[in-house]
Amino acid sequence: MGFVSRGFVGRPEAREGTGLLPPGQYDIGDGFPVLSAGPTPRTALADWDFTISGEVDEPERLTWQEFQDLPHEDVTVDIHCVTKWSKFGTTWSGVSLDTLLDRVETSADYLSAFCDGGYTTNLPLEDVTGGSAWIVDRYDGEQLEAQHGGPARLLVPHLYFWKSAKWVRGVALSGVEEPGFWETLGYHIYGDPWREQRYAGD
Amino acid sequence: MARTAIRRRLTWRLATVAANASEARAVHRLSLQIDGWDGHLPGQHVDVRLTAPDGYQAQRSYSIASAPESPTVDLVVQRLDDGEVSPYLTDGVRAGDQLELRGPIGGYFVWRAEFDSPLQLVAGGSGVAPFLAVLDHHAAAGSGAPVRLLYSARSIDDVIGRERLQQHAERGIGVTIALTREQPPGWAGLSGRLTPRVIREHVWPADGRPSILVCGSTTFVEAVADSLVEAGHEAAAIRIERFGDVKGARRDSGVPTTRR
Amino acid sequence: MTPESRRLDGNAAAGRLSDVFVFDATAARTRCGGCGMTAPLGVYHVYADAPGMVVRCPTCEAMVMRIAQTPGHTWLDMSGVAALDIST
């Protein structure tokens, strides 16, 4: 270890490793930072759709209205961003991936979420099924704001939040894992905050 | 010289804090002694990296606010109370401490004394920092380039480098300060925001083909740039340095601001 | 507060790029692989609050570069840059 800045501790709470905070995270409290890799896409609801494609028996396409008509669930979860903030007790409403994936037949093991603006992220299928992931369109009782990923985003709270892709427009199923936007640039292929899988090789 | 100084790979090096003094409300000037500093160009910045005993690091960028002729390399740091780096730099650092930094960085947003076209500087808030370096260098180099500074600050207590700007005004630099929030009694400068009309009236006319440097928050610089283009200035004559809007953001302000 | 209100410019990427290049990247004339616009990298937009930095064309917003720093590594994706013109 080289140079140390006298008296600098950063965010000390970040490294206490309490039971609720994954290692290296700190509690952002009421804040909800917006992290974006580009300008905010604005897709009119009339033009919005959600597709399930790739290795499926028949691709599925839902309009905004069809998506609205699917049963929604309320979820309250903690979220953990790879840039080290965590936010406790966030409340969302959306459609379980189980409900969506029930509409297709597949033998795939992986999926890529794709989004307006070109963002992608990869996930094992078993991480988005069994009540562990949702396409959410409401946050904190309100319609999901564009800056937080509205009209709809993916929510996979047990993985780092970059996996919870904003402005999601669909998923493509595949037998092989296709690394996404950050996963191809040094970030971990899986991204479990409790094992602190921030970067490739962690 | 400075030109060769930017033609090598930069490495992290140690600077010694010579002074840390209040410069304006919630703004400090850190004067740094850096052994073997090869000089810099006004407009360049440095990256500052802080390291905690357990190895945790945080990094921010700050414009250099001093001229290359200055014996110290000065940074102007605005304290954001919930920031991670700026409160440490303004309140935690004292003379004799060491800081790790790399620089000088950037060859685009710079002014060279051999440029003789009219120069227009437009600053919002702590975006004036690189222009303090430009104006001091302009004076030290005896440049004949006509210069105007249009500077938007919230109140008189927020004006950075006030005395020095007064001295530049006395030697013929056009210094116009607009106070957006409150003005002291008898305020002779401008009041309110830099509207397209203010820009048109207080910036060198477009037909004189000035080169223009704009520095401030993203919203500020983009509005100013739009007004400049509207006033007939060529987009290519306008060089911009942004730091992200900081209101409500849980992060530090530097110029430009970067994460980590 | 919107992502657009916090975007930066090529200057913000210059320190990171100095880990890679011996020349100053902000002055390098950069041709966008999307629309063909050419300008110094300092003119390009930088979105720095994502996990890494994303450099986008100020004209067409196409992504031209991505830069990430992970422990012991600098990752650079320049697939969106058609050409860099570096004055020597």
Description:
- The complex is a heterotrimer of chains A (about 200), B (about 260) and C (about 90).
- Chain A is mainly beta and about 200 residues long.
- Chain A contains 2 helices and 11 strands; from the N terminus they run βββαββαββββββ.
- In chain A, the strands form 2 sheets. In chain A, strands 1, 4, 5, 8, 9 and 10 form a 6-stranded mixed sheet that branches.
- In chain A, a hairpin with a 2-residue loop joins strand 8 (about 135-140) and strand 9 (about 140-145).
- The longest helix of chain A has 6 residues, at about 65-70.
- The mean pLDDT of chain A is about 95.
- Chain B has about 260 residues and is an alpha/beta fold.
- Chain B is about 20% helix and about 30% strand.
- Chain B is built from 6 helices and 12 strands.
- Chain B has helices at about 1-5, 85-90, 130-140, 160-170, 195-200, 220-230; strands at about 15-25, 25-35, 45-50, 55-65, 75-80, 100-105, 120-125, 145-155, 175-180, 190, 210-215, 240-245.
- In chain B, a hairpin with a 2-residue loop joins strand 1 (about 15-25) and strand 2.
- In chain B, helix 5 (about 195-200) crosses helix 6.
- Residues about 1-5 and about 245-260 of chain B have low confidence and may be disordered.
- Chain C is mainly beta and about 90 residues long.
- Chain C has one domain (about 5-85).
- Helix content of chain C is about 10%, strand content about 40%.
- In chain C, a hairpin with a 5-residue loop joins strand 4 (about 45) and strand 5.
- The termini of chain C are far apart.
- The model of chain C has no long low-confidence stretch (mean pLDDT about 90).
- The chains are: A mainly beta (about 200), B alpha/beta (about 260), C mainly beta (about 90).
- At the B-C interface, strand 6 and strand 12 of B face strand 1 and helix 1 of C.
